[in-house]
Amino acid sequence: MLVSLIDSLKCGICKSNRAVSLVLMLLSLIFSGASYSATLTPAQYTTLNGILNTHLNYFLSTAAVTSYGLPLSAYKVGDRARFGYSNPTEWGYLLQAYIAAAERGKISKSEAASRITTTLNTVKTLQDNNLQVYHGGLFYPYYKVTDSLGNDVFPFHDSSLSIPSMDNSMLYMSLVIVDGWALDNNFASLSSQARAIYSKMNFSPFIYTESSTGNKIEALVVNASTNARAGKCDVYANEGGLTTMIAYFSGSVDFATYNALTSAQLRGPATWNGITVQEADWFNPMFTWGVRSLAGVPVTGTPYSTASLVPSYRGHLTYEEKFGIAYPALSDAMSQGWVQNYFLPNISRQFSPVTNSVPHAFFIPLNVLADLEQATLNTTITKITELMSDTAGYYFGTGSAYPFGFVVATSPRKDDISYLGVVPIDGKNIFETLSEAFIALSTFNALQQQDNSKDFSYFMTKSPSMVDHMKTVQAYLYPTYQPTLTVTNSNTVGGTVTSDSGGINCGSTCSQNYAIGTLVTLTAAANSGYVAGWGGGCTSYTVSGDCLVTLIAAKNVTANFDHALTVINLNPANGTVTSDTGGIACGATCSANFATGTPVKLTAIPVTGYQFSGWGGSCSGYGNGCPLTMDTDKSATANFEVFKRRRPSWKRGLLSQ
Fold first, then answer.
1. Range(s) for CATH 2.60.40 in the chain?
2. Which CATH number fits domain 564-656: 1.10.1760, 1.10.287, 3.40.50, 2.60.40?
3. In this predicted model, what pLDDT tens digit does every residue of 87-99 receive, in sequence order?
4. Full-prediction pTM beyond 0.85?
């Protein structure tokens, strides 16, 4: 989805200021779809990691983000004031970009916390001002953040009175993710800040009963002046489905009302050219398939992903041949002819010529990396790299004046140097916050999933109430779906992993399907000479170190059976022992685990006035440097003593006469 380059069409995730027909999609509940398991090759991983780092530059720049911690809707090179307004969805995605930057090591976690605090302070100040919010906590669609010269100003809402349900919902979930990330990293005050904001966001003003049908409906917007509702979230597959979930997550409606809202949104599947999408939509944009993943809702492995998102994307790729274009990157109204022009497979079975492509469309399916067919993933990476090198100049990487990655839109044809952008008067060198976010956050999810590290769904589930609500929603939507728990044993010689509920004994049996909501306890039993540890995927841990996993969607857990190297420093005030790998600095950090066969060198470094007097244990007989190969658990003792000046040999001889 894109912010329009025409002011009258500007909008965030909520398309309520455009034709209502652009927001409609659908749902079916039980179909499971095909099962694939794509993985990134090392080269593909490196490419995506570079793209992520480049797009995170946008969110860390003063060109795109004001001193008050809110992003511009878009940054037009040479004209910062052109899109000097900001939308609540964009605020949330900025917060998530800071988390992504910290988790990937681009910035420190303390820097991320500081940046997040700046943004939250501004948002809380707005929320505490009744002139700047509606119903005590809901935000307007647009806030001015620059003056006419492009200088930062403290935000204030513009003339639009249409309070959007979708934009507020997306911000709500971003704040929940911030809360979970803060809890996971012991930033207690940051957690309280985020919670103080989202706890005041009540979505009940959007809920009404439609007089013509008697259906419970969630409105797209509420007029802040008249309280009149307009539009309706009536297709579950898109943002409408997520918005109704969030109304339930937030406590704004009970489950019975959520059930009624969902029932009013259900539609049937759509088929075209041999491709069936079970939860089809009216005009089938790609961006709406990504919003659940970016909101932290577990999607990978669910029928929503395998039977709808993935085949929908396959449908998009077939448009390359149908229209003879190079880049079938069709994500939103801008790339789909604005109004009443759709891309199959969709409910209305309409399609239109392609005049614009948007690079972020290729990144949306990366949110469900493991559900893609390998050939589909390879095609996607190929399209991304072709766009990066296109001679029309759509990608700005490290070393350029504005290294923010992809511009907002491109020609659908390769090397089309005549392409001037969606609105030629604005040109093509425009970087849009929502597009930057879809690329950066989707890529973050993909890389973290490949690494079996913490993605946005992990941080969402740090909130116990969210987990309980998600279990209820998933079981209601997909009553026959049984998510798969897969254990990766990094070293079967070193030990086994078993589950308390049976089915997993890995070693040999490393996956099992469970009912939605099942809490599984995994126990790693190390063999002699090994130590057990978890490499990722656990929801939490028991006191004894067992891995707890709540199955809401498919889950991967990694168990590592490594060798422990322990250093005993008998005189830590007198010297330090360091390792060339693994992080030992003893003093403080005196042990680390290493995979079988890892070479490690320990070095003893005395402080001034002391000397190293020798090793014990596995390093006995070595000098200051001790080379080890980790083929079992090992321990080394280091001793430092006061430096003793030795007399020259000729003086010792004289004294002995």
1. 477-561, 564-656
2. 2.60.40
3. 999 999 999 999 9
4. yes
